[in-house]
Amino acid sequence: TSPITWGTHPITWEGIDAMLEQTAELSEEYDFPISKWTTLSHAEVHPTLGIKQRCKWDYMVLPGDEVSRNPVEVGDVLRARLIEKFL
Predict the structure, then answer these.
(1) pLDDT tens digit string along 13-51?
(2) 39 vs 23: CA distance, rounded Å
């Protein structure tokens, strides 16, 4: 795997936390649990649900990563952070 070139606007924990906070609000409003079957990124859909995606890649990296990772591993980190910080 090639090293990631982050450019001038890299993904940040601040941006991720804003997304996670919105997800927490929606999960409370619509009463759905946080799980790998209900709150997952496009990159997790195929390995988790078996539904092929068309060139959808988010999230396969987290801030500071030098190479991409298994998307379900990244999703697990995001779900844990969501529960820990916002629920």
Answers:
(1) 999 999 999 999 999 999 999 999 999 999 999 999 999
(2) 8
